[in-house]
Amino acid sequence: MEETISLRELMETLQKRIRLIILITLTAVLVSGAVSFFLLTPVYQSSTQLLVNQSKSEQPAYNPGEIQTNLQLINTYTVILKSPAILEKVISDLDLDLNVSQLTSKITVGSENESQVMNLSVQDTDPKLAATIANKTAEVFQNEIPKIMNVDNVSILAKAEVGEKQAPIKPKPFLNIAIAAVVGLMIGVGLAFLLEFLDNTIKTEHEVEKLLGVPVLGSIARISEQDEKKASRGLERNSRVRGENVG
User: Fold this and answer.
1) DSSP states of the chain as a string?
2) pLDDT band, residue 230 (cuts 50/70/90)
3) CA-CA-CA-CA dihedral for 193, 195, 197, 203, to nearest 10
4) Average of pLDDT values for 197-216?
5) Residue 55, C-beta contacts closer than 8 angstroms, at least 6 positions apart
6) By the 8 A CB rule, do 154 and 50 touch?
7) What's the rounded mean pLDDT across residues 145-155?
């Protein structure tokens, strides 16, 4: 019985504060939409792929031992690719108004599991510049790695290209709006229960019975101003009728 009453009380609280919950949720959605569409600058990403293959030698075309070595070298290559030795040359060749730290923050390097393919991704607010940086970084890395590691086993598998209608990777307005709606709803519900918990006033006969543990014998109905005027007009008519009868 207590669980039924508790559930009913929860529903009553939500119903009583439904306007507040809707207002907070809509506010969160509108703010998130405005920020995502009008304030945040779109960021684009371009990617190129590098293949860490066999070094040029007289070994067979397929050498499991050397492939495993190449896989282990990818971690080293990832560090080298984002090192000043590579990025300073990229900045110089492209005449970028960036330092090594700023350029490093734009570059992401990863590889597929058990794969000799390295993915080089660059993020920038200009999609063409992102593709240019990605291709130039891959080119510089391919040219410099033989000097650094004394091995020539890196080739460019695919160059970065700019699509005609390339979509930004962030922000994602609709995802942001959905998250804002959920967060706003949670805040609204939480605030509704908090206000209900802090509100210790007695508003209904049911609350009086629950608080005092005794039945309510009677209650005074609230008379609106309109009902009061109707009652006054009714009393005036009754008074005139009684006066006429006496006359």
Assistant:
1) -HHHHHHHHHHHHHHHTHHHHHHHHHHHHHHHHHIIIIISPPBEEEEEEEEE---SSSS-S--HHHHHHHHHHHHHHHHHHTSHHHHHHHHHHHT-S--HHHHHHHEEEEE-TT-SEEEEEEEESSHHHHHHHHHHHHHHHHHHHHHHHS---EEEEE-----TTPPPSB--HHHHHHHHHHHHHHHHHHHHHHHHHH-----SHHHHHHHHSS-----PPPPPHHHHHHHHHHHHHHHHHHHHHH-
2) low
3) -110
4) 68
5) 66, 151, 152, 153
6) yes
7) 87
Q: Identify the CA nearest to 168 among candidates 109, 127, 119, 110.
A: 127
Tokens encoding 104: 């490093």
User: Topology of 41-158 in CATH?
Assistant: Alpha-Beta Plaits (3.30.70)
| Partner residues linked to 107 by β-bridges | 122
Structure-block tokens of residue 78: 């990832």
Q: Smallest Cα–Cα separation from 111: which of 79, 83, 159?
A: 79
Cα separation, 56 vs 202, whole angstroms: 87
Give the mean model confidence (pLDDT) for residues 199-227: 66
Q: Is 131's pLDDT higher than 90?
A: yes
Q: How far is CA 39 from its chain centroid?
A: 15
pTM score, two decimals?
0.68
Domain parsing of the chain, residue ranges: 7-37+172-238, 41-158
